[in-house]
């Protein structure tokens, strides 16, 4: 882009006056033609456009010389022979790049993502083309526009209008002859600033494609339209000491003299390492460059750079080195290709450090790599941000450092800048005549503009069901005396993690009896019902001291949880429990990663002594942080015990209250896993079986604690339910129970029981807000409850009747087990409960348990559920069940 | 002026001429229907003819319904901003 263009177009888009009425009618006719052509174009197939493109490319190649000659004659810039090459590159190289690309209909199928990419044309493009590369830019844009089924209104630079109009004519006639719609390319006659501003703001123009200087680009982006604005550059070149001097000097001369330096990616300042500086200059001189002395440099500066603006003088743009020398008054050899002037810095005090679109090259001697890189950064920031940079080096580290430091869309290595940036000749860059300069250049892209920028790419995203899983311990032994299986696990040193009561009951001795005879056994007694951090740390110390290769967790859920965390810290001492407990929405996408690939130091065998939590098969562990007065939940499948032994002999003496509490905890796990959004056929099988076992055996296990079969089946039910919720998670019942239990110190099972009928009624109703879930099709919670009712043989004809019967059966079970049926019955005063509600609602909403709930709980709904649980009996009604509606 | 709706068939290969002929019916009718069911693709001259016809119908205050317009042709009319001038019947 040259200074004249800057001046002429810099004021866009605010011309003093708009176009005349007559002129507007003319411009409207152009837009109308283009709009209709673009509309018709949408009916074309890939084969249609490919046929037209090929014909246009052949026509462009045929007319390359004719157009080059016209361009040089009209603009008086550049070299005719080079412009022929540019025209041919715009046709042949671009064609070679796009010929097999799909730009109509489905352009890319990505089966692994279940996504189809489809092309939608933009419609009408308004394109401003430069004086420096007039016909090649028009040819390029026409070919790319047809390939993408767009119509273009061209507004060439006024001083290159005739040659551009001729290029547009050739492209249009060829395209239309081969089937393109009439009006697909038009060219504004004698374009003015008001014309350009009018078209830039026209509602039917879909995209402005402005190739030129900062004025054009700014105007395009200021129009409020989507725009591709591709502006000026100031290419720094680092000729590093390891670079091949012969290649570098020839490449720079090729590039800087190509079309007399009119390509904006051409080299502007060459920074040369001190070690090779003299040799480089000598080589330049040998190959036809004139090295200016200090006096000549001053003369050159004053002549080719405008002292007022600091930009290059238009009269020098695209002129031969010998002609420039003549203007300046330098005496040079007749075959001089290039004028080289030494500069000692970058900026206004060093006029030749700016963009010079003519064969004048600045050189800078750098005493160190650091100085060289800094100078290149300075050049880059002196008008060339985002555009192009060049490095000649064999040192990969320096090349990467250069790439890292320089802000340029194209960093050309060991090749000529101008032709290298055009792409497809010296490298595999996308061929273009429009260089995106990124935000550094006020552009929206750093790409070499091509077909992808002339398309709206639509993505047809099919519903993807994320992979689901069913993960449980490798080995589960169950039924009476299952503990005998311990003997098959060899161990040198085993730590039994348990509590004092279980040791007193003789449970530890039973376990000892069934271990390998040579195993050294140590018992780690954890006094607290809810283990805290300090206790865990002591346990880990013991594991390290004895170098245990097996941990046996003997106890309820808390004890097994403690052992899980001990194992984690034993094998990954660096694990930060606080960090691992960070909140997440989806287990597989969470931010925090658990230690991976750690060597297993100890096998974890879990032997539950209650029938509820199912911790022996779950990936969860809850830890009490007494210092902060809260519980920390860890969740990761790496926490799952290696072996579970579900032996009912350890629960035969479980007290009635604990039997009821843990039994209802188990039922809640199964019911919530059953209606969870993460439920699958695998988890459903477990959930349904667990529910059936609870309804059948829990009353007996409660009423007749020594009934071996009932104890055994409830112990199995707890483990089976846990397998379901380990993989399908739980729901809003647990979120409410956690919050309420923590606030009023109510046992987990009892807290679950208080919420359960109300949550079932809540989930069975049409949600106020559906929970987004790719796993489920439609809302099915009420149907799944009905399936449970059928499984239990509860009767009922309609879905609603079946759900009501299941809730009634659950309430009946709770009555049988002697549960309080309202929070009020616990003696919690109403006003105290009311005061606690905001805190409990917040805690419940923060609880990850409800993330898989079928119905998304609103805060107010959580409040209502808490009050229903407070009021109790008779409030669990299906007020809003409307199965037909869902 | 007749009030019953006249329906004219538009031939895919003769869109311009058929629309020209339809223009002659505009004076005598308050309502007119054009059957486009045979037109599966429309070119620039055809689209311009539709545009011209739409203008004339508007001038004459004749309501024009396009029948059986294919989806592709409908999208083309939409992009050319011509759909607001007509009503569409399947």
Q: What this model shows, in words?
A:
Chain A is 45% helix and 14% strand. Chain A is elongated. Chain A has a seven-stranded parallel β-sheet with strand order 10-11-12-9-8-13-14, sandwiched between helices. Chain A has a six-stranded parallel β-sheet with strand order 16-23-20-19-17-18, sandwiched between helices. Chain A has four domains: 44-230, Aldehyde Dehydrogenase, Chain A, domain 1 (3-Layer(aba) Sandwich); 235-426, Aldehyde Dehydrogenase, Chain A, domain 2 (3-Layer(aba) Sandwich), CATH 3.40.309.10; 471-588 and 600-650, 3-Layer(aba) Sandwich (Rossmann fold), CATH 3.40.50.1970; 654-886, Dehydroquinate synthase-like, alpha domain (Up-down Bundle). Chain A contains 30 helices and 23 strands. In chain A, strand 3 (124-129), helix 6 and strand 4 (151-156) form a beta-alpha-beta unit. In chain A, helix 3 packs antiparallel against helix 6, helix 19 (533-546) crosses helix 20 and helix 22 packs parallel to helix 26. With 90 residues, chain B is α/β, with parallel strands linked by helices. The longest helix of chain B has 17 residues, at 44-60.
Q: Care to give the gist of this entry?
A:
The complex is a heterodimer of chains A (886) and B (90). Chain A is α/β, with parallel strands linked by helices and 886 residues long.
Sheet-strand content of chain B, in percent, reads 15-25%
Task: Count helical runs of chain A.
Answer: 30
- What proportion strand of chain A? 5-15%
The CATH fourth-level homologous superfamily of the largest domain in chain A = Dehydroquinate synthase-like - alpha domain
Content-based structural category of chain B: alpha/beta
Name the CATH class of the largest domain in chain A: Mainly Alpha
Radius of gyration of chain B: 12 Å
From the N-terminal CA to the C-terminal CA of chain B, the straight-line distance is 26 Å
In CATH, the architecture of chain B is 2-Layer Sandwich
**How many independent structural domains of chain A?**
4
The CATH homology group name of chain B? STAS domain
The quaternary state of the protein chains shown equals heterodimer
CATH fold annotation of chain B = Transcription Regulator spoIIAA
Report on the biggest sheet of chain B: 4 strands, parallel
Spell out the helices and strands of chain B N to C: EHEHEHE
Shape of chain B: globular
Order of neighbouring strands in the sheet with most strands of chain B? 1-2-3-4
Total number of beta strands of chain B? 4
């Amino acid at each position: 882009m040259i200074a004249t263009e800057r001046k002429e177009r810099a004021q866009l888009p605010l011309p003093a006056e708009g176009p005349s009425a007559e002129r507007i009618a003319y411009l409207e006719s152009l837009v109308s033609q283009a709009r209709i052509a673009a509309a018709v174009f949408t009916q074309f197939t890939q084969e249609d456009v490919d046929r037209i493109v090929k014909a246009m490319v052949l026509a462009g190649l045929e007319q390359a010389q004719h157009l080059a000659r016209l361009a040089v004659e009209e603009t008086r810039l550049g070299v005719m022979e080079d412009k022929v090459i540019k025209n041919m590159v715009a046709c042949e190289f671009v064609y070679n790049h796009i010929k097999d690309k799909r730009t109509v209909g489905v352009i890319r199928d990505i089966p692994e993502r279940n996504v189809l990419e489809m092309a939608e044309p933009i419609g009408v493009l308004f394109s401003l083309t430069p004086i420096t590369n007039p016909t090649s830019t028009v040819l390029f844009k026409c070919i790319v526009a047809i390939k993408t089924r767009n119509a273009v209104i061209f507004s060439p630079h006024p001083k290159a209008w005739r040659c551009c109009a001729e290029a547009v004519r050739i492209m249009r006639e060829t395209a239309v002859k081969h089937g393109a719609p009439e009006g697909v390319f038009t060219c504004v006659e004698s374009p003015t600033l008001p014309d350009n501003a009018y078209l830039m703001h026209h509602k039917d123009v879909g995209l402005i494609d402005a190739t030129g200087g900062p004025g054009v680009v700014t105007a395009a982006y200021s129009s409020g339209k989507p725009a591709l604005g591709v502006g000026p550059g100031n290419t720094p070149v680092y000729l590093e000491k390891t670079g091949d001097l012969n290649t570098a000097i020839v490449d720079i001369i090729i590039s800087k003299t190509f079309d007399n330096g009119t390509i904006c990616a051409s080299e502007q300042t060459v920074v040369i390492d001190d070690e090779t500086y003299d040799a480089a200059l000598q080589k330049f001189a040998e190959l036809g460059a004139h090295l200016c002395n200090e006096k000549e440099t001053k003369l050159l500066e004053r002549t080719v750079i405008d002292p007022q603006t600091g930009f290059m003088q238009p009269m020098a743009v695209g002129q031969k080195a010998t002609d420039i020398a003549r203007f300046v008054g330098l005496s040079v050899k007749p075959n001089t290709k290039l004028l080289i002037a030494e500069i000692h810095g970058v900026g206004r005090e060093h006029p030749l450090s700016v963009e010079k679109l003519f064969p004048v090259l600045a050189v800078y001697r750098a005493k160190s790599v650091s100085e060289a890189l800094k100078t290149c950064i300075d050049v880059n920031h002196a008008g060339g941000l985002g555009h192009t940079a060049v490095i000649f080096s064999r040192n990969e580290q320096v090349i990467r450092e250069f790439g890292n430091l320089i802000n340029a869309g194209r960093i050309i290595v060991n090749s000529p800048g101008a032709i290298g940036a055009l792409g497809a000749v010296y490298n595999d860059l996308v061929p273009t005549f429009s260089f995106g300069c990124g935000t550094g250049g006020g552009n929206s892209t750093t790409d070499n503009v091509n077909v992808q920028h002339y398309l709206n790419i639509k993505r047809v995203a099919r519903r993807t069901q994320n992979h689901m899983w069913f993960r449980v311990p490798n080995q589960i032994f169950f039924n009476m005396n299952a503990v005998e299986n311990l003997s098959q696990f060899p161990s040198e040193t085993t730590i039994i993690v348990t509590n004092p009561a279980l040791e007193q009951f003789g449970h530890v001795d039973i376990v000892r009896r069934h271990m390998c005879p040579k195993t050294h056994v140590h018992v780690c007694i954890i006094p607290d019902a809810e283990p805290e951090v300090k206790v865990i740390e002591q346990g880990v110390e013991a594991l390290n001291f004895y170098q245990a290769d097996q941990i046996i967790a003997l106890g309820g859920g808390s004890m097994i949880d403690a052992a899980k965390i001990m194992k984690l810290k034993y094998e990954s001492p660096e694990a930060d429990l606080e960090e691992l407990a960070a909140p997440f929405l989806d287990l597989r996408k969470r931010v925090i990663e658990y230690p991976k690939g750690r060597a297993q130091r100890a096998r974890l065998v879990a032997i539950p002594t209650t029938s509820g939590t199912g911790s022996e098969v779950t990936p969860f562990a809850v830890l009490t942080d007494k210092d902060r007065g809260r519980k920390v939940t860890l969740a990761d499948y790496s926490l799952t015990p290696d072996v579970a032994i579900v032996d009912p002999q350890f629960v035969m003496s479980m007290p009635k209250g604990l039997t009821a509490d843990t039994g209802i905890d188990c039922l809640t796990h199964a019911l919530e896993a059953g209606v969870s959004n993460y439920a699958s056929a695998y988890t459903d099988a477990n959930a349904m079986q667990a529910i059936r076992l609870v309804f059948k055996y829990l009353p007996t296990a409660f009423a007749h604690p020594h009934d071996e079969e009932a104890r055994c089946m409830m112990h199995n039910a707890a483990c089976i339910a846990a397998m379901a919720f380990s993989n399908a998670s739980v729901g809003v019942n647990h979120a409410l129970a956690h919050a309420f239990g923590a606030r009023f110190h109510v046992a987990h099972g009892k807290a679950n029981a208080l919420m359960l009928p109300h949550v079932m009624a809540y989930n069975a109703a049409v949600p106020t807000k559906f929970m987004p879930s790719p796993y489920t099709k439609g809302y099915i919670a009420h149907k799944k409850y009905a399936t449970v009712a059928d499984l239990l043989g509860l009767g009922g004809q309609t879905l609603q009747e079946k759900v009501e019967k299941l809730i009634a059966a659950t309430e009946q079970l709770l009555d049988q087990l002697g549960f309080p049926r309202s929070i009020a019955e616990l003696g919690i005063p109403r006003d105290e409960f009311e005061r606690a509600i905001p805190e409990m609602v917040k805690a419940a909403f923060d609880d990850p348990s409800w993330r898989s709930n079928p119905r998304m709980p609103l805060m107010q709904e959580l409040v209502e559920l808490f009050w229903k649980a407070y009021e109790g009996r008779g409030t669990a009604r299906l007020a809003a069940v409307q199965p037909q509606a869902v | 002026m007749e009030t019953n709706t006249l329906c004219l068939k538009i031939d895919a290969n003769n869109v311009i001429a058929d629309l020209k002929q339809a223009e002659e019916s505009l004076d005598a009718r308050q309502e007119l229907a054009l059957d486009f069911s045979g037109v599966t693709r429309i070119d620039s001259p055809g689209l311009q003819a539709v545009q011209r016809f739409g203008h004339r119908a508007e001038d004459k205050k004749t309501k024009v319904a396009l029948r059986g317009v294919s989806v592709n042709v409908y999208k083309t009319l939409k992009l050319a901003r011509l759909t607001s001038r007509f009503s569409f019947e399947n």
